[in-house]
C-alpha cells in the first residue's frame, strides 16, 4: 500500500534536473529515455526503502519503450526545462547519488530492455499501453528481491537477485561514519525483513 506521507521532494523537475546536472559532471549528455528509466528506478527503490513513501510527486506510465513520466517528457521534449530549482533535502540527494552510481553507467537501451522485463512495467503494459505503473506494484517487485544466496540465486520467499534487478541492499551505498575511537565504519540503514515471524524459542 502506498504511504500517505507527502513525497520527500517538492517537484519531479528537481529530480530530473539533478540527474541531468549529475551526468554533466561526469561529462555525459543524459539521453531523455535514460533519464526516465533512472527516475523510475529512483521512485521504486525509494518507496521500498521508506515504507511506500514517494520520492517525488510523479506518475509513471508504461510507454512502448519503457516507463515514462509524461509531464517530464513534455517539459524536456526539446531541451532542459527552465524551472526554478530548489535545494532538495540531503536525504534525497544522497539517495539519488546511489541510484546514479548503481545504474548511471548503463545505456538507455540497456535500462529500457531490462526494465521492460520487470513485472511492474510488463503487467501494466500488458493491461493497456500507457497504463499507470503503481507504487504498490513497484514495491511488491523491487522490495521482494533477496540477496540471501549468491547473485542470481532465488532466495527463499523472494525474487532472484541479479545485476538487472538488484536488491535494495546492493543499491544503497553504505555511509562512512566514525566509531567512538575515530575509526571509519560503514553504516547501512536497518531494513526489516519480510516474511512470517520466526519462532526462535527452542
What structural category arises from helix and sheet content?
A: mainly alpha
State the helix count.
8
Mean pLDDT: 84
Task: Note the main sheet.
Answer: 3 strands, antiparallel
Encode the helix/strand succession as letters. Answer: HHEEHHHHEHHEE
Q: Biggest sheet: strands side by side, in what order?
A: 2-1-3
Task: Kindly estimate the percentage of residues that lie in beta strands according to DSSP.
Answer: 5-15%
Spans with pLDDT under 50 lasting ≥5 residues? 149-156, 184-202
CA radius of gyration is 18 Å
- Backbone shape: globular
Can you characterise this structure?
The chain is mainly α. 40% of the residues lie in helices and 8% in strands. The protein is built from eight helices and five strands; from the N terminus they run ααββααααβααββ. The strands form two sheets. The chain has a three-stranded antiparallel sheet. A hairpin with a 2-residue loop joins strand 1 and strand 2 (66-68). It is globular, with a radius of gyration of 18 Å. The chain starts with 11 loop residues before the first helix and ends in a 15-residue tail after the last strand. The model is unreliable at 149-156 and 184-202 (pLDDT under 50).
Amino acid at each position: 500500500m502506498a504511504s500517505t506521507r507527502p513525497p520527500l521532494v517538492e517537484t519531479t523537475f528537481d529530480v530530473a534536473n539533478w540527474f541531468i546536472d549529475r551526468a554533466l559532471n561526469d561529462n555525459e549528455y543524459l539521453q531523455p529515455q535514460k533519464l526516465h528509466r533512472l527516475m523510475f528506478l529512483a521512485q521504486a527503490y525509494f518507496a521500498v526503502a521508506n515504507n511506500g513513501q514517494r520520492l517525488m510527486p510523479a506518475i509513471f506510465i508504461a510507454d512502448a519503450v519503457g516507463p515514462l513520466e509524461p509531464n517530464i517528457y513534455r517539459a524536456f521534449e526539446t531541451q532542459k526545462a527552465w524551472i526554478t530549482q530548489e535545494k532538495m533535502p540531503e536525504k534525497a540527494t544522497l539517495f539519488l547519488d546511489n541510484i546514479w552510481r548503481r545504474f548511471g553507467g548503463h545505456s538507455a537501451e540497456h535500462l529500457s530492455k531490462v526494465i521492460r522485463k520487470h513485472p511492474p512495467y510488463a503487467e501494466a503494459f500488458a493491461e493497456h499501453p500507457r497504463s499507470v505503473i503503481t507504487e504498490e506494484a513497484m514495491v511488491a517487485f523491487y522490495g521482494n528481491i533477496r540477496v540471501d544466496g549468491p547473485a542470481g540465486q532465488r532466495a527463499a520467499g523472494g525474487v532472484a537477485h541479479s545485476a538487472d534487478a538488484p536488491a535494495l541492499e546492493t543499491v544503497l551505498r553504505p555511509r562512512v561514519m566514525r566509531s567512538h575511537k575515530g575509526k571509519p565504519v560503514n553504516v547501512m540503514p536497518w531494513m526489516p525483513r519480510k516474511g512470517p515471524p520466526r519462532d526462535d524459542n527452542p
